[in-house]
């Protein structure tokens, strides 16, 4: 008979064989790095072992040793973390790009996991301003881990990831808005403050509109650098295609090229692009045209002409709207007029884009289309109002007629009654 102690020993032995013998639990999946580091006192040593289950690498079974090298089957610190076993340890900042790119630039390797992930991060990074500085040994520049973290790296589309669309501005601003940190480079640090006020920042960060650009759309992420401002229109054109097309065909394009005037940016700025207004046209205080065109130039005359075309259209739309509202209040049919007013409004929007042709004729061709629609609505509303008054006149006339008739009838009855009375009294 086996005593209780032997029974336990035997059971553990058999379980041990099953445990280590099973392929899924083979020595390969033993992770001494994880086990030992979990229990270490120093936070920086134990923290990496307490990762989130959403970590992209953990999820697919990439272990500590896959990144850091070493032997994860040994509990002996002098074996597991032995450089002879390929232990790299903690990479220096300068080494990090190549450390990550060992896998990320290897397209055969990456395809085995996810064929949709590009493998160009390092080649882009190397030509970026960040990469160039890293190659020179700069300690403050951004490396892969500055934007992605070293542990707990999340899928770029995970809302908790620093590279998630809505989080990118803050990730870049960690360094770029830190005056003290950036001091030695002598570049402005107001990009994020300006961006947050801009139409783009408001749309992305407040409305959550992911079609609005963040830092990476205009600068790139891995290849982050300065767009060449003279040709920045190419970047804006990704989303403002019609505006850019009009600009490209305008006399302004050649002027910008020749004189090195930044495209789009010359009138709209870059980080603090605000909602444009009609006051930017013409020659008033907020007008942009007069900053470069004096009163004798063609540009000045065009600025005035475009402004007055747009103002005219606005007035005609406002008049048509007022009249249509009046007709509607009188209970008349105004559906067609309302439709035409909407269309005239679309022409106004289009005209504001067409100012980028910097041509009086082109703007007028759009404005005139809008004007004839506003006029049509205006006429239709006027006609309905006339109809209303005509009907009202008819109504008053009919009432009057009935009244007169009733009066006549009443008088007639009275006479008849009088006659009757007089007859009997005789
Ligand atoms: C038995 C415990 C133990 C095991 C097993 C172990 N480590 Fe460590 N590790 C430590 C201790 C303690 C330190 C800090 C002292 C030192 O650097 O030697 C450390 C330091 C490190 C560092 C930081 C080195 C530096 O330069 O700052 C890394 C990275 C690391 N370990 C990764 C690993 C990996 C990968 C494995 C598995 C292949 C592993 N460790 C296995 C205990 C362990
Ligand atoms: C995707 C690759 C990757 C994986 C997987 C990974 N690490 Fe790291 N680890 C890094 C990088 C990169 C650094 C350097 C970070 C830095 O300099 O900011 C680092 C740093 C460290 C450090 C040094 C921390 C310090 O501040 O000195 C330790 C300790 C460490 N890792 C342990 C581990 C352990 C334990 C595991 C497994 C649980 C692990 N790492 C998994 C990439 C990885
Ligand atoms: C300046 C910040 C920054 C640096 C430095 C950086 N990344 Fe990225 N990375 C991003 C952002 C932002 C995205 C998200 C891109 C998107 O949504 O289009 C991203 C996306 C990725 C992706 C997903 C696939 C892709 O290319 O879009 C991988 C993989 C990646 N980075 C790896 C790396 C590696 C490896 C390095 C270092 C060689 C690195 N990154 C350096 C910011 C950075
Ligand atoms: C041992 C190989 C290996 C190393 C080293 C490695 N990665 Fe990865 N990484 C992968 C693989 C494989 C995936 C794809 C996971 C999946 O989607 O199935 C991945 C995914 C990612 C993603 C998510 C991409 C996406 O589409 O959202 C990011 C970001 C990333 N890695 C960044 C890094 C960074 C930063 C480093 C260096 C600190 C690094 N990786 C080091 C293998 C590696
Ligand atoms: C770890 C800090 C850090 C992070 C994070 C960082 N940068 Fe940088 N960046 C720098 C430093 C340092 C420079 C060097 C400035 C210089 O050379 O004038 C730089 C340079 C640049 C430049 C070139 C500026 C110039 O005048 O040449 C651009 C553009 C840029 N970064 C964009 C970004 C974007 C976009 C992000 C986020 C996706 C980002 N950076 C994240 C530190 C960082
Ligand atoms: C709509 C496009 C756009 C967006 C969005 C954008 N930038 Fe810029 N950025 C530019 C242009 C254009 C320049 C000027 C380039 C030049 O002068 O050659 C510039 C210049 C810079 C510079 C150089 C220093 C300076 O201010 O002139 C840095 C650094 C920079 N941007 C970082 C950022 C960061 C960080 C974000 C996100 C918070 C961001 N940018 C968002 C277009 C943009
Ligand atoms: C990634 C796409 C994208 C890029 C690149 C982009 N924009 Fe925009 N832009 C938008 C979106 C989306 C809006 C609408 C935001 C909103 O909802 O108010 C917008 C709005 C604007 C507006 C305000 C329009 C209005 O009627 O209120 C101006 C002006 C503008 N952008 C100029 C620029 C300039 C100049 C550039 C290049 C330096 C640029 N944009 C680059 C997507 C983009
Ligand atoms: C940043 C300076 C600048 C601003 C702002 C500017 N222009 Fe110009 N514009 C030029 C330059 C330079 C030329 C080419 C030289 C010239 O003809 O004066 C030009 C040319 C023109 C021309 C063609 C003139 C011709 O002789 O054929 C027109 C029309 C014009 N601009 C209209 C405008 C209007 C309208 C605005 C305001 C919406 C405006 N410009 C704002 C710099 C500017
Ligand atoms: C010479 C000055 C000037 C330049 C250069 C310029 N714009 Fe404009 N932009 C204006 C003015 C003025 C308005 C306001 C029109 C209005 O509301 O009446 C405007 C309005 C806009 C609007 C809102 C109206 C619309 O739907 O088009 C967008 C978007 C825009 N600009 C984008 C751009 C882009 C992209 C570029 C470069 C290809 C550019 N702008 C170049 C002066 C300029």
User: Beta-sheet strand percentage?
Assistant: under 5%
Helical fraction equals 55-70%
Number of helices: 23
Q: What string, H for helix and E for strand, traces the elements in order?
A: HHHHHHHHHHHHHHHHHHHHHHH
Bound ligand species: heme C
- Kindly report the average pLDDT value: 91
Q: In terms of per-residue confidence, which ranges show pLDDT below 50 for 5 or more consecutive residues? A: 12-27
Q: What structural class results from the helix and strand content?
A: mainly alpha
Distance between the termini: 152 Å
Q: Can you tell me the overall shape?
A: elongated
Question: What is the strand tally?
Answer: 0
Biggest sheet character: none
What value does the Rg take, in angstroms? Answer: 39 Å
Characterization of the model:
This protein is mainly α and 426 residues long. Among the domains are: 228-274, no CATH class; 298-392. Helix content is 60%, strand content 0%. The protein contains 23 helices and no strands. The protein has helices at 4-21, 32-38, 43-46, 56-59, 64-68, 77-80, 96-104, 107-113, 121-127, 129-135, 144-148, 168-176, 179-182, 191-197, 199-206, 215-219, 233-236, 241-249, 251-259, 265-268, 298-329, 335-354, 360-425. The radius of gyration is 39 Å and the shape is elongated. The termini are far apart. The structure holds heme C (HEC) (9 copies). The site of one heme C has 19 residues, from helix 2, helix 3, helix 5 and helix 7.
């Amino acid at each position: 008979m086996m005593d209780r102690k032997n029974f336990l020993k035997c059971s553990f032995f058999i379980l041990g064989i099953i445990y280590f013998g099973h392929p899924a639990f083979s020595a390969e999946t033993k992770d001494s790095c994880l086990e030992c580091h979990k229990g270490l006192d120093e936070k920086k040593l134990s923290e990496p072992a307490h990762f989130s289950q959403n970590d992209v690498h953990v999820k697919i079974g990439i272990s500590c040793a896959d990144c850091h090298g070493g032997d994860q089957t040994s509990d002996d610190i002098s074996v597991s973390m032995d450089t002879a076993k390929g232990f790299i340890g903690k990479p220096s900042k300068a080494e990090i790009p190549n450390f990550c790119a060992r896998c990320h630039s290897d397209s055969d390797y990456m395809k085995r996991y996810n064929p949709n992930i590009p493998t160009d991060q390092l080649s882009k990074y190397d030509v970026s301003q960040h990469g160039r500085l890293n190659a020179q040994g700069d300690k403050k520049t951004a490396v892969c881990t500055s934007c992605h973290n070293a542990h707990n790296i999340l899928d770029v589309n995970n809302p908790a990831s620093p590279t998630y669309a809505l989080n990118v501005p803050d990730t870049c601003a960690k360094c770029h808005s830190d005056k003290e940190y950036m001091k030695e480079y002598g570049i402005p640090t107001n990009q994020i403050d300006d961006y947050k006020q801009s139409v783009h920042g408001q749309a992305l960060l407040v409305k959550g509109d992911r079609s609005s650009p963040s830092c990476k759309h205009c600068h790139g992420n891995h290849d982050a650098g300065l767009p060449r401002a003279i040709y920045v229109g190419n970047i804006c054109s990704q989303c403002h295609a019609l505006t850019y097309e009009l600009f490209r065909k305008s006399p302004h394009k050649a002027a910008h090229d020749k004189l090195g005037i930044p495209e789009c940016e010359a009138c709209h700025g870059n980080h603090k692009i605000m909602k444009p207004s009609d006051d930017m046209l013409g020659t008033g205080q907020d007008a942009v045209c007069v900053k470069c065109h004096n009163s004798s130039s063609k540009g000045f005359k065009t600025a005035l002409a475009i402004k007055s075309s747009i103002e005219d259209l606005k007035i005609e739309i406002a008049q048509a709207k007022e009249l249509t509202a009046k007709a509607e209040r009188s209970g008349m049919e105004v559906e067609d007029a309302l439709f035409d007013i909407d269309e005239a409004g679309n022409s106004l929007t289009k005209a504001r884009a067409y100012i980028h042709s910097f041509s009086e004729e082109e703007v007028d061709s759009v404005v005139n289309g809008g004007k004839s629609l506003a006029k049509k609505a205006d006429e239709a509303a006027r006609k309905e109002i006339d109809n209303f008054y005509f009907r009202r006149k008819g109504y008053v006339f009919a009432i009057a007629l009935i009244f007169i008739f009733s009066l006549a009838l009443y008088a007639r009855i009275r006479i008849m009654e009088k006659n009757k009375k007089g007859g009997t009294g005789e």
